[in-house]
C-alpha cells in the first residue's frame, strides 16, 4: 500500500511537471515548441500515453485539430487480459510517437499565406519561381486551389495573387482577388489579402488606396509609425504579421508614401525604408533599398532636412539606434546637398574631408556599406577631358541650338576647379554627314560627343556598326512605329536625352491618376503635335486603369475654342432633373481634364470651363501651359491648373535660381523664348560623368535643372518633373 501511494504521488508530480512543460510549449515559437515537446514526452510517455495524445492535441495545437489527424472510433480488438493490456499500451505509445511527428512538422508558427501550403505544393511551384516564371507558378497555385476546400483554397489563391504581382501582372492578381469571398478569410488570410491589395493599388498608381489597405493590418496596440520600432520584428504591433511579411509591408508602404509626394510623406517613406533595412539580409536587396533611401533624401529641400533632423525626439530623450540611423542619413544628405548647390558636381576636396568626419560621427552606419563608397567615388569623377558639341548652328533649329550651346558653356564656366575643365569644341551639323562629322570629332581628340539635335542625324548614328566614343544625343531616334530605339551594336554607348512632350503628357496622366481621378476628358490642339499628345494622354490613362470620358481638339481661333469646350462638356454632362430654372449647376461625368495647350490657348480654355460650371473639375497640363516668366496679370485666367515643369522654371532649388538669373541677365530677350533649352544644355554638360553609373544602377538618379534624371537600360535619359498649381497667376510648387 505504501509502495502504491508513493507511486501515485510520483505519477502526480510528473503529470504536474508535464502540464507545466505543455503550457510553456503552447506559448513558444516553433523551434522551442519542438524542444519542449520532446522534454514533455520524456516525462509523460512512461506513465500515460493516452494523456499525451489528448493533451498535446488540445494544447500544443491551441485547440486546432490537424486535418491529417482524425478521431475515429474503432472497435477494440478482443484479446485475452494481459495481451489486451499490452496492446493498449503499445497502441498508445505508437499513437504518441505518430503525434510527435505530426506536431513537430505541423504545429509550428508559419508565415500566413504560404505556411499553409503543403510541402508538395511548395515544391511544385518552386522551380518556375526560381526561374522567374511567376505566371506559371501562379497558374499552378490556381490548379491546386481548384482541388482544395475552404480555407485552404484561399491560401492557394492568395499565393497565386502574390506570384502574379511578383511577375508584374496586377490585373491578373486583381482578377483572382475578385474570386475570393473575403468574409470567409481567416485572420492571417485577411492580413495577407490587405497586403496584396495594397500592392495592386500601388501598381495602379493609387498610393492613397494602398496606404488605406496597409492601415488595416495594424494592430490596435500598434503605434502610429511601425518603422520607429527597434530592429528585426516590431513586437509591439502584435502578431498580426509574421516577420517574413514585415519586409514586404515596409517596402510597399514606403513606395506608397513616396508616390503620394510631399516632404512629410517622403520622411515617412524614409522611416519605412530604414525599418526595412533592419530586416533585409540579401546584399543586393540592401543596396537597392539604400538607393531608394538616397533618392527620397535627394528629393527633400535643405530647409526640410534641417527641420527633420530635430524632429524625431525631444531634448532630454536618449538617442535610440533607429533615430541615430535616420539622423545619419539626413546629415549625409545635407552635406552632399551643401556641396552640390551652385556647383556642377560633388567634385570638391573639402567634401571628401567632410565625409570622413561624418564617418567618425556615425560609425557603423548602414550608408557606409554601399552609398558612402559611391559618393567618394563620385567625388573623384571628372568630365571627359575633351568634349565635342555637335549642333545645327544655322537654319530652323538654330535658336534652340544656340540656347543649348549657351547653357552648356554656362555650366562649363560654373564648374568648380578651372584646372579640371575639359576642352570643348563645337561643330555645325547643318549640311554635314553626321557619320563623317562624328569621326572628325574623334580624330580631333574628343572623348565624348554631345549631339546631334535632329532626329534623322540621331537615327543615322544608330545605324553605324559600332561607336568608338560615347554619344549623348539631344533627341530620340525612332523606329517606324515612332518608338525610341537605341544603338543595336556593340562599342561605346549611345545615350538619348531630350525634352520629350509625349513623356510630359504621360507624367501628367500618371499624376492625375495617382490623385484619384478615374474618368478623364482630354483637350489638345487640332494639330499633329496635339494628336501625339492626345495619344500619349489616352494610352497612359488606360494603361493605369482609367477611362476616357471624351476627347476634343481645338483650333487657335477663339470661337472654335469655345465650341470645343462646349462639345466636351455636352458629351460628359450628367442628366439633370427637370427644373423650370436654368440656373441649376451642371454636373459632368468626368473627374478631371488632361490638357495640352500653350499659354494663349490655355488662357481662353479655362474661362470657358468656368462659364459652363466646370471650374471645379481639376485640370492637369504639361509645361507648355506656362511661358516660364511669372506674369500674374495674364496668368490669373489659368488659376487652379496643375502642371508639371522643370526645377529650372519653378526655381525648385538654389542652384536653379542662381544659374537662371545669370542666363537672364546675359541674354534677357533671347533667353525668354528658349528658356527651357538653356536648362537642357546645362544638364547635358553636368550629367556626362554620371551617365555610366546611372545606366548601371550605381546611382538612383541625378538632380538636374530639367528634372530628376534617370537612365534606363537602353540609355534613354528620363525626366521626373516638379508639380505646381497656378495661384493668383503665380505657379506654386505642390507635392
UniProtKB/TrEMBL annotation:
Entry keyword annotation includes Lipoprotein: yes
Keyword Protein transport carried by entry: no
One BP term from GO: regulation of cell shape
MF (Gene Ontology): enzyme regulator activity
Highest taxon in the source lineage: Bacteria
CDD domains linked to this entry: PBP1_YraM_LppC_lipoprotein-like
Classification via Pfam families: LppC (PF04348)
Cellular component terms per the entry's GO annotation: periplasmic side of cell outer membrane
Key words of the record: Cell outer membrane, Cell shape, Lipoprotein, Membrane, Palmitate, Peptidoglycan synthesis, Signal
Gene3D superfamilies named among the record's database cross-references: 1.25.40.650, 3.40.50.2300, Tetratricopeptide repeat domain
Family matches, as InterPro entries: LpoA, Peripla_BP_I, TPR-like_helical_dom_sf
Name listed for the protein in its UniProt record: Penicillin-binding protein activator
